[in-house]
Request: fold
Amino acid sequence: MPKLDLNRQPMPKQEPQVRAKNFNEVALGYTPEQALAEANRCIQCPKHPCIDGCPVEVPIPEFIKALREGDMLQAVEVLKSKNSLPAICGRVCPQETQCESACTLSKKGAPIAIGRLERYVANWELNQPATSKPAVILPPTNGKRIAVIGSGPAGLTAAADMAKMGYQVTIFEALHIAGGVLMYGIPEFRLPKHIVQSEVEYVKSLGVDIKLDSVVGKVVTVDELMKEQGYDAVFLGTGAGLPMFLNIPGENLNSIYSANEFLTRINLMKAYLFPEYDTPVQIGKRIAVIGGGNVAMDSARCALRLGFEEVHIVYRRSRAELPARQEEAENAEEEGVIFKFLTNPVRFLGNKDGWVTQMECVEMELGEPDASGRRRPIVKAGSEFMIDVDIAVIALGTTPNPLITATTEGLDTTKGGTVVASETTGKTVKDSVWAGGDIVTGSATVISAMGAGKRAAASMHEALGG
Amino acid sequence: MYKILHREDLVPGIHLFRVEAPAVAAKAQAGQFVIVRVDEKGERIPLTVADWDREEGSLTIVFMEVGTTTRKMAILKKGDYILNFVGPLGLPTHIERLGTVVCVGGGVGVAPIVPIARAFKEAGNKVISIMGARSWNLLFWEERLRSVSNELTVTTDDGSYGRKGVVTEPLKEILDSGQKVDMVMAVGPVVMMKFCAKTTNPYGVKTVVSLNPIMVDGTGMCGCCRVEIGEKTKFTCVDGPDFDGHQVDWDLLLARQHIYLEAEKRSLELWEQREGRETNA
Reply:
């Protein structure tokens, strides 16, 4: 047996001081040599636990094998047999808790960098002229029509899978461009928007029609889609839309944003290119981002790139409880984001014209674990202090948008507003309606939404009899 | 892409488009709004529905030139296209048979008050309308509003047409006249709506206002349009745009409308330079 190679190839990145001033992608991607070296480390173990760790069951050892044999077309085909959006997953999946944590070499502390290889293969394909890409071969249409609501990761995946099985699929997207959270939420420097659009183009190349500017629940209802427009089934992939706020005094002062608004202005509307683009975003010297998830990291890192001098992340628990990917928190810290742990805002103060100037906070300490299993933060008495801020961003998560549930008869929703659907099939209690992604689970990851889209597509296919 | 079927210059700086958008027109109701993005680099801005023609598949919007988007729109001609046109958004005005409803429209707000007045009248109400503008040359749709009202009073700030003064004066007279008023609906500049609500408050007459804060997506996703109604935070795009005028935190609304004044000015100056156009302001 050959000796195990435990030298995991690091991802080349822009230097922290450089990248903190631009919106270009932080990760630069493997060179062909690095990709080959990393692929060669894979021991092709027969148990392939990595596949079980992947929510969409990509045949990981197989694509790695093709890559190291130099058969890039084959690598692409293997990847895309299960994952229609590999260039996206290779960038934003939390591989460290999925395929890579399951990798046999993980026990030796050096799992194969599956995500980086996936990114490499997907990028290779995107850079090929159309003629040398794997041909899209579709089965004859079966005449059945599927409406997919929302063009985020769940919707795109469900649509692609259904199209590949011969269905006529229409995606209804509320915004002016397809991609959902991949466009409005995740910043350019983590997920370049031309990459998202390339993946959207691939889904369109499968015959999927995307109707933009179409707010289902307003311009048409789910029932009308089925009864009047002749769709045989509907998949709801509308995501978790409504931003949560702290509900503390002063929260509606000028220059206090939800992370959704802050990021939407920057990513979707390209406010970082203002005034070339028309949509502005407030820029100042000091900003506080409240929250500890990936969205908080994204907001803080955007703020650095917009030119804020001091960027704080204010989180009520400690570093150990940060819900963000460790890599993202590290990236943020390297770039100069200041973390204020065990700190919680209690009110915002403003000037006479209604602009925020200060944030009053309290110090916290950790008590017994709560329902989430994390230690519950408790206020330290008499610990109030002030932070000067020009801008504050609230990144506490989102709740589902009620536009669909409020206008659709017969859907079952939870107290939190999410749609009740089977975990294994995505089927809701309403006839011919499936759902998946954040609308079912609340805020989660891109890949878990894709997994849900995939399972729903399989279940729809079974129910509709192919 | 949404085709401009018809364009009309109503008064200096205020224009009307009839836009081809059959799906939106099929569902539009009085009091709702659309989000418009004029071109690839444009902002998303909300505009209240002024009318619709379900047969033609068109929606009518009336807009005033204030910022970059509306200036860009103002140079579009019949046959040109608007890049994005989303709607109908927001909750429709709640229409029911109440008795007597006073409809107040100010400035560009006269346009959306027309379908609202019409809906109240069709529901069997007596509709008393008041419309106002700064001067005679800024008045439009007088006959249109008159045709859906039982009575109409027109005011101009400078007295150049109709009654001299502001809309709250005839409003107060109606309330003082002793006739029973069941509801007041006001659409117009924030200050006008604020003072309509102030005027009606002592009389305890329900007063609904149509708020117009800054928005981005218009579907409840961003929270840019949040307002405080009776000390509770509401999203105008999904909870409104109609709210109880007596509960609105007007100062907050005014402050939030000014967030981007500087940026808006800069954006507009740059556009004017690019276009080589003189500013009208």
